[in-house]
Amino acid sequence: MKIYIDTNWFLSFYQANQERQGVLDLIAERAHLVVMTDQNRTEFRRNRASLLQRLRENIIKSTKVQPYTTSILLGMPEHGRVLQAARDMSDAACALLDKLTEFESALEDKVSRTFNELLSKCTVIRASDEDVVRAQCRKARGIPPSTSKRSTIGDELIWECLLRGCEEDLAIVSLDGDFLEQGALLADEFSAHPSRRTLIHIGDRLADVLSKYAVLTPEEYAREQYVDPIRRCSSCGADSWYYAGQDRNSVHLEKAREHAGYPPLDDAARLEYRNQRHVYVCGQCNSLMFL
Q1: Least crowded by CB within 10 Å, which of 98, 127, 128, 256?
Q2: What whole-number distance in Å separates Cα of residue 96 and Cα of residue 87?
Q3: Taking the chain (291 residues) in consecutive chunks of 10 residues, what is each chunk's mean pLDDT?
Q4: Helix (H, G, I), strand (E, B), or coil: what is residue 42?
Q5: Selection from 98, 116, 124, 132 nearest residue 48 by Cα
Q6: What is the pLDDT of residue 106?
Q7: Which domain holds residue 96?
Q8: Residue 26 neighbours by CB distance under 10 Å
Q9: Cα(264)–Cα(8) distance, rounded to whole angstroms?
Q10: Position 191 in a domain
């Protein structure tokens, strides 16, 4: 089993309180479970700089205090304490901004250190020219993950890399709506692979993945995630089927037999099968199954 952590999850530590920083230590200890792409490296280093600058601006705005002053207030000791508190706030803000400057130049904050440590230890899938072409086609067709509001193909390229380079079961941690909202479609596409892999989880909290899957032994994981081979499509390996009703007059069955090179049904067999077979369609390759 592998865990893919999207770039936006790491970047969220600079702009929101998504998860406690302690989870960074937990994933660093399990770097062998992580899979990433070289696109993640580029995205993190590019976006981190702009987020730190935005963080700097927000600190300045939120700590700027200008106490109201009049002649009568100046003689009050309480007002003096208010002025001193404002000066203390300004000094503390300056010290905090100096610390951010160190982060910007040395890449020494905890999030950046963990991200770089993971890159040095985890499985990194490098994007190929073929991945880029497939990502561009995905973008043009609007197939998830794809965001029409952007002209770039970052999400598309990452997904194409995972489809090609990850042959193990996969859990995805992302804050991207296209991943979180299109889980069924992504799971169908990911499972259609000779390795019989499965997309076991899509969510926005890494702690959930670690507590549910990372604590399992290989034997426990195999028992919990077992998929009956009969559920798998014989053509593409996907494990999602959609009911398409009864096979009226064995029309679909006849076409399937012809495609497979089998002779047509005789009258007795056709009568036996008539209106008794139910048709299911593979969610990935549209192959038919009869039950």
Answers
A1: 98
A2: 14
A3: 94 80 91 94 86 85 88 87 91 87 72 91 95 93 81 90 95 92 90 89 94 90 81 83 79 74 77 72 84 77
A4: helix
A5: 116
A6: 61
A7: 2-224
A8: 13
A9: 55
A10: yes
Q: Which two tokens stand for residue 218?
A: 């290989």
Q: What is the CA radius of gyration of the chain?
A: 28
Copy the structure tokens of residue 74.
């100046």
What amino acid occupies position 10?
A: F
With CA atoms as reference, report the closest residue to 289 among 259, 258, 228, 244. 244
What does each C-alpha distance from 64 to 56, 61, 67, 92, 104 come to in angstroms? 12, 6, 10, 11, 22
Helix (H, G, I), strand (E, B) or coil at 291: coil
144 preceded by a cis bond (ω within 30 of 0)? no
Sheet holding 278-282, edge to edge: 241-246, 278-282, 288-290
Q: Residue 193 has what pLDDT?
A: 87
Specify the pLDDT at position 199. Answer: 94
**Same domain membership, residue 261 and residue 130:** no
150 phi, psi to nearest 5 deg: -120, 150
Residue 144 has phi, psi (to 5 degrees) of -60, 145
Residue 232 lies in a domain: no
If asked whether residues 87 and 218 sit together in one domain, one would say yes
What DSSP state is assigned to residue 34? B
The total domain count for the chain is: 2
CB 92 within 8 A of CB 62: no
2 and 166 in contact (C-beta within 8 Å)? yes
H/E stretch holding 5: strand 2-5
Buried b (16+ CB within 10 A) or exposed e, 150-180: eeebbbbbbbbbbbebbeebbbbbbbbebbe
